[in-house]
């Protein structure tokens, strides 16, 4: 709740609307106790006085009634009727929507056709017809407005309910034996409640206007009672000689509705969970970069053939007042035609590292707070957005984990490829199409010509991932970043995809950054491997050597987690405990709490990545299989 209010307050317009509305509500509440003249007492001798006249700060109307008093009492009536009508419409409409959406089938049909019947009439005409039947009067205007707004809620809420009624968590609730009523109240309602509140907050203003409209026509508030609409209606006749009689209630309606709408928009934004994490704005197309002083050197770390060199990369997520350090000073390099594996448990920062390279981390909340990314001699983090965009998909391409969610569901795969090609190459449509088919061929999709005309859902998971790879290859990139490209696939398809990537490397000389949590996969395709833990690289070196003699206890435990075929005695061993939270990383070694070799020195200070063998580095004070300086000293 506090977080919600804080978010709301950060939106200036919404806060302004909220304050104005609050003042108006307060004024409406205390109206009976204010020293006002009776709003209904006529005084023909003093009719049509202008504002600022003695005794009548806002003047009088055609019957000599005090406008200030009528305005305040009228606002009170308009607010009460508008809000009451909205609540009734929201309650009844949402109930219909939830029931129709949840039960579906005949119930849905029956309820929604009824709603359709309400919607078949122009909506203000329907309200007029209802009041005509019930007779003019404030209460009847309220009913009419509530009824004509029911379809609005019913349709909205039904749509949302249909969307979640068949989601897995509802099935799970059903499997746990919950009845329909329990599911509706404890699973569905909390999920649609924000939508109801948002719809409500954006319609209250309308309903107040509609009530005023009915009163303006003489169908709502009856004389002598005032509401803003009827005051406007009465003032209309003397617009020329006494404009203030109509202008003042008009102004009041304007301020009231505007404040409600501003607040409503703010509420909608603040309730959107995607906006909860940061400022009230959608993520920018490029990650925000806030680097301190640039680190010295060209960042190539002495690798002459370096294609990509990452130097001390740091990426944080700033959510409210908490800062999550997802990537804490990661450095690595990838040479031409090299495949570097990036391994680690889920949440260790692999994906964020990969996304940071091309500024693809959502910002807010993501911020790159330090480091350099060198690609062919340029610092990518210093490039302007246009420059980065030109590189994306051309020199560096991504393959993501879930091929279904990365392909556009409504566009044929061939057309998606054509689009990817033409984004960077000046080809005609037919030429691009030809290239697209040959790409599908290259990733071994049988019958590519026909497949190109199919939609993503018509392909199997393995084939979709091939399309994903074909798309990455579209512009002959120098580097492919593959983020767990085989995790969603079964082992046979995984083997095919790995073979495909391997073949592309030998044919095209492409470099690959291959992210995975599986050492089995790493051993098949990576030349070198970097092991990540809590946003840092804890060990890096040639794959064969690391698999043979892991130097970091974490690497050893990770390797032990992989079951080995034909060795039933060699039971895979889970690593006890959990990685540390990214907003509260411990001093010293982040793995210390889970390490069976931990000693006090591990927790004392920063632990550097030290070179142990020619090509290997490890972030441990007592690397496995290496006599440390301290123990050498003891043994002497
Ligand atoms: P993985 O190694 O499994 O790919 P990620 O790189 O996706 O892990 O995530 C690294 C850390 O960053 C995790 O602790 C995760 O909770 C955090 N993180 C990722 N995205 C966000 C986000 N949008 N907001 C806050 N934290 C995030
Ligand atoms: Mg990931």
List the main descriptive attributes of the protein structure presented here.
636 residues; MetI-like fold; eight-stranded mixed sheet; five-stranded mixed sheet; 49% helix; elongated; disordered C terminus; binds adenosine-5'-diphosphate; binds magnesium ion
Topology (SSEs and partners):
Elements lengths: L1 H9 L1 H19 L36 H37 L1 H15 L3 H12 L3 H28 L2 H8 L4 H37 L11 H8 L8 H28 L16 E2 L16 E14 L2 E14 L3 E5 L6 H8 L8 E10 L2 E2 L5 H7 L4 E4 L3 H4 L6 H12 L4 H14 L5 H4 L9 H13 L5 E5 L7 H18 L2 E6 L2 H7 L2 E6 L2 E7 H6 L4 H8 L49 E4 L2 E3 L10 H7 L1
Parallel strand pairs: 1-5, 4-9, 4-10, 7-8, 8-9
Antiparallel strand pairs: 2-3, 2-5, 5-6, 10-11, 11-13, 12-13
The structure holds adenosine-5'-diphosphate and magnesium ion.
What would you say this structure looks like, in words?
This protein is α/β, with parallel strands linked by helices. It has a domain of 210 residues: MetI-like fold (Orthogonal Bundle). It is 49% helix and 13% strand. It contains 22 helices and 13 strands. The strands form 2 sheets. An 8-stranded mixed beta sheet has the order 7-8-9-4-10-11-13-12, sandwiched between helices. It starts with a helix and ends with a helix. 42% of the residues are buried. The structure holds adenosine-5'-diphosphate (ADP) and magnesium ion. Adenosine-5'-diphosphate binds next to strand 2, strand 3 and helix 11.
